[in-house]
Amino acid sequence: MNRSQHVFGSGLVFAVGLWVAWVSYTQQPAEAFLFPRLIATVFVVLAGWTFGKAVMGLSKVGNGVTRTMFVNLLPGLIITLIHVFWAAKTLGFYTATTIAFFTLLSIYDPAPHSEVKTWIKRGIITAVFVAVMYGLFAMLLNVYTPREILF
Amino acid sequence: MEFIYYFGDVFTPMSFLLLLGGTIGGLILGATPGLSPTMAVALLIPFTFQLEAAQGLILLGAAYTSTVAGGAVSAILLKIPGAPANIATTLDGHTMAQKGEGARALQLSFLASAVGGIFGVLLLIFLTPVLAQWALAFGPSHLFWLAILGVTVIGTLDSASVVKGLLSGCIGLWLATIGFDDIMGAQRFIFHPALGGGINIIAALIGLFAIPQVLTMFAKGRHNSGAEVIEVQRHSILAAFRELFSRTRALSIGTLTGSIIGLIPGVGGQIAGLVAYDQTKKFSSEKDKFGTGHSEGVIAAESANNAMVGPSLVPLLTLSIPGSPTAAVLLGGLLIHGIFPGSDLFDNHPDVAWTFINSMLIGQVLMCIFGLYVAGLAARVAQVPQSVMAAIVLALSVFGAYSVQGSMGDVYVMACLGIGMFFLERLGFSAAPLVLGLILGPIAEANFIQGGMIADATVGKASYFMTGGLNLFLIAVVLASIAYSVWMELRSRCYTTKEEAQA
């Protein structure tokens, strides 16, 4: 599990390194790519070394992501991705934040789900937090965030 | 003694209010496990956009100073270091708290932090102008090597694997080249429209430092720290004062160790605290008391981790080379206000530079005074479930990244870099060299191009970049830092093998 993660991760970095090197050495004007060429050369050498070690099972540093960690992480990661790449722009920043915040609290809060009191507490925390964010960003810093469908 | 002229600027109502807010907020944030000083400062940058440069830096500087000190609260009362810099404080601080001496431990910790911190800032005040004058002699080739040195030192010293640390630095240097080339106007590596203007440093800083911590908190699941706050009993502050100055050996070893370590780029507060603790134990006549709730342990660790704060900014303010990840974030804070630190900072913007440094001096005193009062509240905040903290940090990151330029592209870049960094960190890569590469990349490239032009008209590239006393010295330091880290890595691997063999 750990070895395959190292191979996949370092392989991906190596592939990016090769792409950077290919672009740096083939694109014009050459003068604009002098510095990227310098970096790309070192990048490919180091990434190749790391990938080679991973393939041979010699990667010692980094524990990877265990199955339990991944299972715990997955809901939060999915909500983060939906929030950033879809909801914030489509629903509006404050609506998306309210939904994401409340959902994350509901999933990760260690308090028991069966108690009504817990849900009321989560609702109050979410409302107070979003109000503070509105006060800070919309009123104090005058940041105009996308309002879109809702708010 | 120029700094004295700018002391008044710290005491204008707005500046002082920001200093106070930054200090108290930093103490509370610092006490919260999982929120590192670097992340706290990165998340605060968007709040400085509408402030004047000096005021923005006052807020960031106060937060930096007090988050390091605030980490001692959770280290002492919860046995959870607020930041890596407070690991050594846990060893004796928490045992003292368990014995009912929590107030004494907290008082000694804040007093020692203030003494160490003031000494560190004084070092910053007196060293910076001298080094800035010296740095005036630096040409493009020297600045190029300095930028490479900054990435290399952090890449090798801050990472568990030298190769992965250097590779992280390379990734950062490459990310810095994305966008339009300054000289030819050519497009480079723009594979998505959001990258047209290059990678925004502030959005990248927020993503690289905040998002991996959010995901780490998620990965722990429905986790409750289970840590109980130990109630503190009253203790005379005068007695703590007397005790601190009766333990001068621990205080001076901690302060000096922290100051020296702070000057070395890449070596953080965690190392400062642990080295100072170890050295104080070696020189103490009560060696056997260490680890059993001995006040010298707390004094040494806390004076060291705060003494390194001031000196860690010396390379940033004189050479524009951040010596630590937090200094890199502060550089981001300077750049958004159009201020480029370096040898001429004290000539062009003396008001900004000196007001910032002076505020750090006053901040140490405020941190000490308020630390004692805020400790109880900070310990309660530290008990807030990580789910709440993760959701708060995520929302702040999204709003913070968007507010930089009002662009969703920055939010996407922030999220992609953050999520990518989380998985890379799990595979042994490090965010600090990547950030340094991203920040120092443009400096390295500009000086590489400029130096190349001079070289073509004079002695040729090889001679220009590879000869001359200062060039050779800088190249030697780059190679030495790599060689030292490789040696340390091989040595630790030897020990591991022996231990494994014995097991």
From TrEMBL, chain A:
Coiled-coil residue windows: none
Occurrences of domain DUF1468 (ranges): 12-146
The keyword Transmembrane is assigned to this record: yes
A Pfam family of this chain: TctB
Transmembrane domains' residue ranges: 7-25, 37-56, 68-86, 92-111, 123-144
Keywords: Membrane, Transmembrane, Transmembrane helix
InterPro entries: DUF1468
Domain of life: Bacteria
Protein name: Tripartite tricarboxylate transporter TctB family protein
Organism name: Ruegeria atlantica
Taxonomic placement: Bacteria, Pseudomonadati, Pseudomonadota, Alphaproteobacteria, Rhodobacterales
From TrEMBL, chain B:
Sorted UniProt keywords: Membrane, Transmembrane, Transmembrane helix
Highest classification ranks of the organism: Bacteria, Pseudomonadati, Pseudomonadota, Alphaproteobacteria, Rhodobacterales
Signal peptide start and end residues: none
Domain of life of the source: Bacteria
Record protein name field: Tripartite tricarboxylate transporter TctA family protein
Nucleotide-binding is among the record's keywords: no
Listed InterPro entries: DUF112_TM
Annotated DUF112 domain residues: 17-436
Segments crossing the lipid bilayer: 16-45, 105-127, 134-155, 189-211, 251-277, 316-340, 352-375, 387-405, 411-441, 462-487
